[in-house]
Amino acid sequence: MTVLISPTLAQQAPDPLKKSVQETIDARYSAMTNLSDQIWAFEEIAFQEFKSSAALSAYAEELGFKVTRGVGEIPTAFVAEYGSGSPIIGIMGEFDGLPGLSQNKVPYKSPLHEDAPGHGCGHNMFGVASLSAAGAIKDLIAEGKLKGTIRFYGTPAEEKFFGKLWMIRAGLMDDVDIMMDWHPGDETETDVQKGLALVDFIVEFKGQAAHASGDPWNGRSASDALELYTSGINYYREHVKPTVRMHYHIQDGGQVVNVVPDYSRLWVRVRDTSREGLMPVWKQVEKMAEGAAIMANVSHEVTLVSGVHEILVNRTGSAYMQKNLEALGPITYTAEEQEFAKKIQEATGKPQIGIVSVIKPMKETLEHSMGGSTDVGDVSWVVPTIRMSGTTAPNGTPWHSWAVVASGGMSIGHKGMGYAAKALAMTMVDLYQNETLRNEIKAEFKEKKGDYVYKGIIPDGPPPLKAGY
Ligand SMILES: [Zn+2]
Questions:
Q1: CA of 60 to the centre of ligand 1 (A)
Q2: Taking ligand 1, which is a single-atom ion, which protein residues have CB atoms under 5 Å away?
Q3: 197-308 is classed CATH 3.30.70.360
Q4: Are the C-beta atoms of residues 233 and 245 closer than 8 Å to each other?
Q5: Domain boundaries, the chain
Q6: CA 372 to ligand 1 centroid distance, Å
Q7: CATH number assigned to the domain covering 7-194+310-449
Q8: Coil, strand, or helix at residue 93?
Q9: Of residues 173, 41, 163, 62, the one with CA closest to residue 113
Q10: How far is the CA of 143 from the centre of ligand 1 (A)?
Q11: What is the pLDDT of residues 310-338, one digit of tens each?
Q12: Could you tell me the distance, in angstroms and rounded to a whole number, from the CA of residue 71 to the centre of ligand 1?
């Protein structure tokens, strides 16, 4: 039997440049871990990442990049660029945390600062690894060993408002040939799943306050409307496809028990595995707010926050990422790190297997993959995007939890960050060296995108920097 090897896979870039990017990243490892630990300790959330953005962009300048801050009408967004001409390869880095997840670097729940945010999604490592990969490529361009432009995107507010949407709207990614991305995780793999499209909107009900017992007949309750509305959403769950997810967060349900509440507010999120499936569900859930308002005799208002597309997976580019992960092989851990991992697994009710670090074959791209959502989805409809996941926490770690914060602040997270930087840089070496590969990646993108004209799900006007929700 003849085994056919893809011609582009056979023409991988020569190893010396890949070795060189690995050495650069090794040489900068302590600078990287310091920066990651700083961002970890800043504990900043969406659109408030002022110190984290300042630290990352300062490091970009130190590495020799030209930095433009405050792009896309977002003070904490920035672009760092080096080189000139074609190809333009982009790489994205996030750096926002999550509310309420502050945590010490210990394998049991122990807040560093009570009620403060924490890096429960590992974004303290995300931006640093991507920028470091860009830095290694920058050096090769400076030495004349690669030709073109490298551009790092500092992308804020992934966790709440999806900052990339405004960066796309500003046209910042229009000229990019191929975009790179990674995410911290509990496994190392080429990420070829689509995730979910979603939309976020705020529903407010406004009624009339009155004494809850003295003259309730004068009251019109905004909290009645809220209860009727959430009941409607929960009944509706039975009549949507299994791929749909609906969530709500009650942000204001009244203040005290002896007042008929004249105001209530909730954040509503609807998801599906594709934007097309999402649209009718979104419209229905919005419409139901009107029904609840009629029943409670109050007024209502719906305000769009933002929404994201599912990811347009590029398997041609992903195959190269996979080759580079296989070339790097699994991460090795010390006995202390394995002990730390087992304690995390014990504390979170998972099998105490330590960190199993293997590079599995690239998975099939599922038609309906479940899981989370990301504004990387939108980027992937504008420019072909290649993604990976790097191990920064023990297998099975509940995500968006204290355990991710703990692992991301110590050597388990640091190792995954360094590893991701290498894999991303090695794959970018392939992209710069191989024009045929770039064209194949673009051809797959074009074919999958078809005649869809991308339009971001965001309201007109500036991003909600001070929206109060
Ligand atoms: Zn994340």
A1: 21
A2: 121
A3: yes
A4: no
A5: 7-194+310-449, 197-308
A6: 9
A7: 3.40.630.10
A8: strand
A9: 41
A10: 34
A11: 999 999 999 999 999 999 999 999 999 99
A12: 21
